[in-house]
Fold these 2 entries.
Entry 1:
Amino acid sequence: MSEDSIHDNPYIKVTYQKDKGRSIFSKVFIPRGTVVFVDNPYIANIDSLYKKNICSTCFKYFSETCRPNVVVCPQCNDYYFCSSFCKQYQKNETRHSSIECEWLQYFGNYFKHQLLEDDKNIVLLLLKIIAKRIHQNDSLSFIVDNDNSKNTDTNDSYNLVPRDVTDLIDHLDEYLSLGINNSETIEQQQQNPDTSITDSDMDISKLKSIWKSDFKKFINISRVIQHIIDRSKHQEILSVGIDSDGDMIMSENNDIENTIQTESLSKSDLNILKLLCKVRSNFFGLWHNGLQNNIVEYNRGGTPNTENDTDSNTTTTTTEHQKNIEFLWCGSAVYLSLSLFNHSCFPNCTTLLEYNNGENGVFSFNYTKTPLRFSIVTLFDIEPNQELFITYIPLNQNKKERNHQLKSSWLFECNCKRCELEQTKSKEIDELFNSVCCRNVKCKSGMVFPLANGYGVCRVCKDEFKSPTSINLDVL
Ligand SMILES: [Zn+2]
Ligand SMILES: [Zn+2]
Ligand SMILES: [Zn+2]
Ligand SMILES: [Zn+2]
């Protein structure tokens, strides 16, 4: 299999579906446990909370008390490596360029303490992308209509595969069409209860309110980014397609909550918003159980999978050793080709990160491998011409919770088989789903990943289980 290429992949092909856009289908029968695709991140960044504990290059965890070789960037004092080796041999997707270094210093002085953690991290991720593009002389215009999803020629898979971050789907138009003026808040709605409002009306108005407040936040973030970039004289990004009336000046006391109107967005705002929306629709949270094994796992956005399910009947304590399943959300990454895999709440594939942890738990970093290379692996046998799915969210939630999360963050309604069958056969589908999930009481979240010996392993807690002998997935 050729790395990073879907075109000559023996297992899968990209097709275009009218209702869903780009999708991945099987070309042939694929046995469960097959690695069908691998990809390296376009960009990856450690969250500010864990910067001091995780190497930016190799993602090795170092504790407060054991850091003899740790090196910090002497300019910004805000970028850490496990060793001078990792500082010297940085990777394209995590490179700490001098441009980024300068921005981090400014960011640390003026904005770091004003922003919430999540917003701070998305700013840092975007700055890293822009610094990378300046470093590589890539285009800084994100407004250009590069929407490959409009290409409906199913034979032309080359044009369906994103080759740059500009090719990623964003939902900026949907956000813009909401309008952001005179938005009613949830609190205001609750003060005026109207008994004729149905559950789904309420859901929609709640969602609109979430989307609007998200979008206001995006505008704020885009202004912060423009402010940082502007100062260090990289004017090209701020002058992309700008009219003679130019940019809005951002004042630090700007009361964005009340004053922003769609019409007042400059083209420079829209340019950064476009990039922000692309990243937000496509980034993955990087999970690290640093205290345990130096293993990085990841899930797309969402919350950690560590909640116990309320249904205790199906759980059996199959293991005496209770493993530490405290995961840190330590960073985020954008993978270009991962966006081709659609979501299902009962996916037939999972994502796995390769992380070279060396022999016997002794860390040995092999520079030829990237620690953040992901693989897509099949969880079940897949017949020819079936769609391959992954999940974007934790799956141990009920249908309402899952759909709320998908709609609020990815703006789509899930119509997967599990969601469909939950209407009529909720008990059966629950049992079927639980039978393929981790049975560790403290974890019980991951779908069990098939091993060759008739066992399966939980990708989250690493417990092993005997695979169910009679599992009938025909209903899916
Ligand atoms: Zn390192
Ligand atoms: Zn620096
Ligand atoms: Zn679903
Ligand atoms: Zn588990």
Entry 2:
Amino acid sequence: MEMCSLWYKKHTSEFFARHMETKNALFWTLECEGKLLGELYVFKKLSDKDFADGKTTAYLCAFRIHPSFRGQGYGTKLLEHALGRLRKEGFSYATIGCEIAEEANMRLYRRSGFLKTVKTVCVDLCDVDEHGKPLDCEPYALLRKKI
Ligand SMILES: CC(C)(COP(=O)(O)OP(=O)(O)OC[C@H]1O[C@@H](n2cnc3c(N)ncnc32)[C@H](O)[C@@H]1OP(=O)(O)O)[C@@H](O)C(=O)NCCC(=O)NCCS
């Protein structure tokens, strides 16, 4: 429930919960003295294999650090932790979406090794309507890193 304070959207939250139950989605939270500072999810398999194919490539998303704690290295730590886990699970690549105009995010991802731009996408595979259909969104770049 506390995580919903960072973010809650009915059908999408249910979509995430379903994928966590089947272990297709993993998530990490960052806490300090019982306070939730951030979260990051990974999907191992999605309908578009460029994002996640269940074997070689996994997709990172819903990456958030509480506004009061940004710019102190927490996001980078969370990202590195998730990448370490994926490496252990045998994945070779991680992907992440980033709106081109989000310069600070783009800088963070490039610095973290997401150097390849796979393609530009206008649909968010992890944000769905009441029928489970992915919703359209602002264009963003799908970035990839070898892990
Ligand atoms: C994207 C996001 C998760 C990054 O988290 P973060 O904790 O701010 O990330 P970091 O602190 O690791 O890195 C951000 C910047 O802080 C700098 N930084 C790292 N450690 C630092 C420290 N100890 N002190 C000061 N700055 C530091 C980094 O160098 C980086 O600088 P840059 O702007 O030159 O690239 C966070 O900004 C966020 O929640 N944004 C809103 C949601 C969002 O856009 N999510 C991504 C798409 S879903």
